[in-house]
Structures are given as C-alpha cells and as structure tokens.
Design a protein that fits this description.
With about 270 residues, this protein is mainly α. The protein has one domain. The protein is built from 13 helices and no strands. The protein has helices spanning about 5-25, 35-50, 60-70, 75, 80-105, 110-120, 135-150, 155-170, 180-185, 190-200, 205, 215-220, 250-255. α1 packs parallel to α8 (about 155-170), α3 packs antiparallel against α8 and α5 packs across α8. The longest helix is centred in the middle third of the chain and has 25 residues, at about 80-105. The radius of gyration is 18 Å and the shape is globular.
C-alpha cells in the first residue's frame, strides 16, 4: 500500500475518533460552531497540500528511500542494528520538531507564519491542521534534511509522520481527560491540557510546552509549564488583536503573516 494511502487512512480514522470524543467529553465550551471553523481550518490544510504538489522533493519518506539507495546518512556510515536506527530516528525527529517549534516562536521571520496557528480561539482536532503553507514548506525542508543526514529508515520516517499527525490531533483535541490520568500520560506524551497552555493568550505560557508528541523535551530543556494561571476552563486562547470572527476565516488566516498587528499588554 502506498505511503500516502496509509497516512490518509490513519489520519481520517483518528480525526473521526477525536471528533467523536470531543463531542461527548468536551473540555471547554466552544466560541464558534464547528460548521464555521472546520471548513476554514480544512481549507488551510487543502491550500498547503496543493502548494506542496509544486515541491515534491520535500517529502521525508522519499528522502529516506533515496538515502537507502545511495547510502547517505549517519546510519549507513556507522553500522548499527536496524531496530536501533528505527527507534533513534523517531526520537531524534521528534527532538527536531521540538526545536523547530521553539525557533518558530523566537525567530521573528518564522514567528510571523506560526502566528496563524495561534490565532485559533477554539482549540480542537482541526487546530492540528491549521498551519500556514509556508510554515509547512519550511518544516518539510527541515525534516527532509534531517532524514538525509541521519540516513533514517523509511519505515521509521513513515511511523514518525503518522505519530506526529496523530499526536497533534490528540493534543489539540477539546477533550476532557481525568486529571490523574492526564498527569500519568504527560510523563511520556503531550496531553491536550498540557498543550492547551501553549495556546494561552499570555506570552509566558505560550512560550512553553513546545512538544508535539514526546513530552520529555519540555522537561529536559526547561520549557514546561504545569498549569495555566487562569485555570483550564477560564484561560483565554489565541493572540491579542485576532479576537474577531473574521480572523477565523481562511483569507485572514493566510494573510495574517503579512499584516502588522498591535500587541496587547495582556500578552506580557
């Protein structure tokens, strides 16, 4: 079965699962109805996918197959067991995503494009789809470069991409998980409550909890925040200056990196 068919099948299966769970076990009340938000968030995904057709060389799995064919990368220069290369590749790629995420918050040029992801005032599974196409292109380029440098096995890259997509939908889900269970899970994986803090309107909370799949990196690199100052139910999500409903429409989302915004004292 083709890699794209596998990924799409698992993506829609997980999306349906998390959407059902959000319906029956919501963590927060919604500001906007799904019928308004979902077409716009999916529209961003479709726009990025269409744009990606023009850069087919930025495909991590294809890069892994190329590395295997030509012997590129660290794991082909230093013989190690296949299972070690498999697990190490997944862990190191997740570490790459952690630092990429931090860079998109600290480098002004990059933060312009990542800003769109944070303008969502309702966090749910579709927020995991809401990344600016230019950010997606940069991310694909970084992952492709890392795969070639590592010589990561194609199977590991495929599993990582599926894991990353699934983890992103899980930790953005508007899903209520009992506190004790949440604290247990977040010892290894990023949970919805843990990641929701990252979407806080307060800058100090937004600049924390960068992990997407494994939660270890936030503990290791001292970027972990355990709970929001205003509580999970009352905390404000989004970015000041993007409070209006029009900012949730696809045109505003795609153009927001190119429009200067006013910062609020609330963010400090």
């Amino acid at each position: 079965m083709k890699e794209s068919v596998i990924r799409i099948s698992i993506f829609f299966s997980l999306f349906i699962l998390f959407s059902i769970l959000e319906t029956f076990f919501p963590r927060r009340q919604r500001l906007y109805r799904r019928r308004f938000r979902w077409p716009n968030n999916f529209g961003v995904l479709i726009t990025g996918t269409l744009l990606g057709r023009f850069i087919p060389f930025f495909v991590p799995v294809d890069a892994a197959l190329l590395a295997a064919d030509r012997g590129y990368g660290l794991f082909y220069m230093i013989p190690i067991p296949g299972w070690t290369a498999f697990l190490t590749s997944i862990i190191l790629l997740d570490l790459l995503i952690y630092w990429q995420h931090r860079l998109f918050h600290t480098v002004p040029f990059l933060s312009r494009f990542h800003r769109m992801h944070h303008t969502d005032r309702d966090i749910d599974a579709t927020t995991a789809l809401r990344f600016h196409p230019i950010e997606i292109i940069i991310s694909l380029a970084l992952k492709t470069g890392a795969v070639l440098l590592l010589g990561a096995p194609a199977s590991a890259v495929l599993v990582f991409e599926i894991m990353l997509n699934g983890a992103a939908m899980f930790n953005h889900a508007n899903l209520l998980i009992p506190p004790g269970t949440d604290l247990f899970i977040r010892k290894i994986l990023v949970t919805p409550d843990m990641h929701r803090i990252h979407h806080s309107v307060y800058r100090n909370e937004r600049n924390s909890n960068y992990g997407f799949a494994l939660s270890w990196w936030d503990y290791l690199f001292r970027s972990y925040t355990d709970k929001p100052a205003d509580g999970y139910e009352r905390m404000a999500l989004g970015i000041s200056g993007y409070e209006n409903k029009k900012h949730q429409k696809i045109i505003c989302m795609l153009t927001c990196p190119f429009i200067k915004r006013r910062q609020s004292a609330r963010e400090s």
